[in-house]
């Protein structure tokens, strides 16, 4: 289907209405034209739409508060307003395209690049990330592997990175539990150990690693 992101003076209905247009077969440019055509306040909106063919359509209204703008690349859009510098969207695109790793890591790189360019002129407060699977399975945790938000924090992007990394580690624990249930003790222990190494200060992860070692007869290591 696709994705919709809207900001500036937000009209939340852009999200479900834009996705509805895509679901009915509209392209991203067509969906955006229809949304803006029905909106008397289009001049203060900022919205980007990406469809499942990788087509991007984006709008920054002429009355959005400067610095406001957007940049588009293949299958990706970055948009911002009330930024300290006009270079923020371009820096986000460059970081996203050059970053290694999975989608969540590339999105974090884009947010961190925006901060380095000066970010929001008002300062820092919140950050959020949503990653949705390419195909629906009916299992919420698989269909939305990342759904995290930091509502109020002195370093929201840094805190978001911490949460993304913590979630990734807890996924290892889930894999380890499944391996243990299937009788693969060594595979489970490897995942428990990797999770513990990723978050050495996390008491719960230390505990479960110890429990797994003790359950396999390795009590000295467990201690």
Architecture overview:
The chain is elongated and about 70 Å long. The strands form 3 sheets. It has a 3-stranded antiparallel sheet, with helices on one face. Strands 4-5 form a two-stranded antiparallel sheet. A two-stranded antiparallel ribbon has the order 6-7. Helix 3 runs antiparallel to helix 4, helix 4 packs antiparallel against helix 6 and helix 7 packs antiparallel against helix 8. It has 223 residues and is α+β, with helices and mostly antiparallel strands. Helix content is 48%, strand content 17%.
Keywords for this structure?
48% helix, single chain, 9 helices, elongated, 7 strands, two-stranded antiparallel sheet
Mean pLDDT: 95
Structural class: alpha+beta
- How far from one another are the termini? 51 Å
Largest sheet: 3 strands, antiparallel
Helicity level = 40-55%
> Count of DSSP helices?
9
Strand order of the largest sheet: 1-2-3
> Which outline best applies?
elongated
Strand content: 15-25%
Sequence stretches where pLDDT stays below 50 over 5 or more residues: none
Global Rg: 21 Å
Extended strand count: 7
**Strand-and-helix sequence, N→C?**
EHHEEEEHHEHEHHHH
What is the secondary structure topology, with strand pairs?
Layout: E1 2-8, H1 14-23, H2 28-37, E2 45-51, E3 56-60, E4 69-73, E5 76-80, H3 88-98, H4 103-116, E6 127-131, H5 140-143, E7 146-150, H6 156-181, H7 185-198, H8 203-215, H9 219-222
Antiparallel strand pairs: 1-2, 2-3, 4-5, 6-7
């Amino acid at each position: 289907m696709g994705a919709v992101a809207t900001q500036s003076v937000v009209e939340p209905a852009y999200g479900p209405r834009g996705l509805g247009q895509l679901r009915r077969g509209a392209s991203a440019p067509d969906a955006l034209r229809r949304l803006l055509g029905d909106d008397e306040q289009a001049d203060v909106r900022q919205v980007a739409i990406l469809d499942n063919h990788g087509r991007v359509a984006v709008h920054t209204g002429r009355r959005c508060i400067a610095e406001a703008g957007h940049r588009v690349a293949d299958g990706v859009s970055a948009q911002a307003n009330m930024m300290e510098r006009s270079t923020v969207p371009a820096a986000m695109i460059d970081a996203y395209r050059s970053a290694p790793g999975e989608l969540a890591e590339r999105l974090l790189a884009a947010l961190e690049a925006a901060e380095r360019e000066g970010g929001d002129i008002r300062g820092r407060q919140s950050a959020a990330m949503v990653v949705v699977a390419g195909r629906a399975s009916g299992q919420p945790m698989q269909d939305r592997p990342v759904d995290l938000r930091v509502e109020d924090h002195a370093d929201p992007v840094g805190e978001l990175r911490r949460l993304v990394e913590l979630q990734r580690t807890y996924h290892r624990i889930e894999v380890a539990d499944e391996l243990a249930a299937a009788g693969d003790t060594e595979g489970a222990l490897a995942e428990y150990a990797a999770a513990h190494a990723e978050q050495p200060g996390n008491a719960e992860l230390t505990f479960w690693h110890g429990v797994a070692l003790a359950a396999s007869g390795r009590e000295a290591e467990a201690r």
